[in-house]
Amino acid sequence: MIVDALSWICLVAGGLVGVVGAVGIHRFPDFYSRQHATGTTDTLCAILILLGLGLQAGISLAAFKIALIFLFLILTSPTATHALANAAMHGGLKPKTDSTPGEGKS
């Protein structure tokens, strides 16, 4: 029963983190801040959801497959985020800055 509760907590928390990441895509002003929001939240979302599924699976072949998926996502998701940001930088996309003269200075 405790494992079931922990599993559902992880699954729901992973879903909520995914929703927060989706909101971040729409709310942040430029590509780089959006990239940060999705790069951070998608990895945490995947970790929590896969942990919840692993707890539901118990010790089985399915849990081993979930662990392999977890390892693959942990290695590739941050790499893909970095590659996209690097390609955008090399492509000439500049980060949006608040550099209006005289604003914010006292």
**Intertermini distance:** 59 Å
Q: Structurally, how many domains make up the residues?
A: 1
State the shape: elongated
Low-confidence stretches: none
Alpha-carbon Rg, integer: 18 Å
Mean pLDDT: 88
The helix content is over 70%
Count of individual helical segments: 3
Strand content: under 5%
Report on this model:
The chain has about 110 residues and is mostly helical. The chain has one domain. The chain is about 80% helix and about 0% strand. It has helices spanning about 1-25, 30-55, 60-90. Helix 2 (about 30-55) runs antiparallel to helix 3. The protein is elongated and about 55 Å long.
Secondary structure elements and their pairing?
Blueprint: H1 2-27, H2 31-57, H3 61-90
Features:
106 residues; mainly alpha; 78% helix; elongated
Summarize the structure.
The chain is mainly α and 106 residues long. Helix content is 78%, strand content 0%.
